[in-house]
Amino acid sequence: MKGSCFGEISQWVKQMHESSRSAAKVSSGERRYAGCRKDLVGGLCIETACWGLVRKERKKKRKWHSLIDKVWNWKNLNEAWEKVKQNRGAGGIDDVSIEEFERNLEQNLNEIQRLLRQDRYVPKPVKRVYIPKPDGKQRPLGIPTIRDRVVQQALKNVIEPIFEAEFRDSSFGYRPGKSAKQAIEQIETVRDEGHEWVVDADIKAFFDTVNHEKLIDAVAERISDGRVLRLIRAFLEADVMEEGQGRAKNVIGTPQGGVISPLLAKIYLHYFDKRMAELGYEVVRYADDFLVLCGSEEEAEEAISHVKEILEELELTLHPQKTKIKNFSEGVDFLGFTVYVSHKVPRKDAIKKYKEAVRRATRRNLPINLEMVIQRLNPIVIGWGNYFKIANVNWQYKGLDGWTRMRLRAFKEKRKSYNSNRRILNAFLKNLGLKSLSSLLNPAW
């Protein structure tokens, strides 16, 4: 099916824009809700109309039926593919790359659509890889095949607006229109209202301990399409392939690395957000990391008890060593920042990671010239600098800029001593295109 948008959304927008002459045509098979995106109906973006319709239906506490045809809708599959292509990433256990998948794109999407329509789609096992964590341990990731990523993205396109309309404002992680910056700003707002005590909480192995049945039940509260529920379950229960370990069943948890995993995590923890709000607590959560802001140390101690009780209902546990009660006077770490009573700064380990990245980009034995080094370095400077520029960083940025220029002088001279490399002027580095952290605070610099 190669339609674009859906009847109810079109009618809803028409009612809001009766004077418009540009109502879009719709296919009779595409009703109610859709993964429709950027077409214009009545002068309003269909994506906006879609979200508006979901908000309208939210008041009715409606369950959504017959969604699978929106998942395999041709336009939705193409948009899902474009998103997967944009995000890049290595292939899964079949070793099919983005480029290989694209060479037979129409055939691949047709096959996906056929299997979904026939309710015969079976995900392939995920590829288990490990990445280092800050504490020196390894974080397991489950890498789906490109084909499975496309299906997960198509599924996400359809069901995410339904649940986004339900999620509380206290949840900031991996949400459209939400950001880490907003989470930090919310912490400061609540702190300034007198909540100076914090439960700094950490859920132990959250993604590895999500209960499949409880998660499916949470999804089923809003979605009654059995084929969609079976598809979600199939992704949750997809086997895991690990080099040297063979194939293993996945009976618990949602593998990090899947397109749909962050959304499923948000759905699972929505119950926690709701219960904490009912108890009157101020919570700021980003994925599985959260703070509970309290007016006193006693309230914080009581909050920990409530947090434990609610998480136990979800078969989750707090990490005993990583969950602490803190006061903003000693600094509270969250999302790479340390937040104090009156200001915030990048965490020490965030600065350490930045320096490590700069060191890797400016190694003296790299077989490239200085201009190419600067081209490699600039994305690091811009990305890190833009993230932390909301903090009180003037003096830190100046110091790090000076340290970076020192690294570049050492690279140019191929010497270990920095003091003897003053012949390269700062202006010369700037002329080569070097970006500075300070310039992100003051573009005129």
Automatic annotation (TrEMBL):
Biological source species: Candidatus Methanophagaceae archaeon ANME-1 ERB6
Domain Reverse transcriptase: 112-339
Protein name (database record): Reverse transcriptase domain-containing protein
Pfam families: GIIM, RVT_1
Top-level lineage group: Archaea
Cited InterPro entries: DNA/RNA_pol_sf, Group_II_RT_mat, GrpII_Intron_Splice-Mob/Def, Mat_intron_G2, Rev_trsase/Diguanyl_cyclase, RT_dom
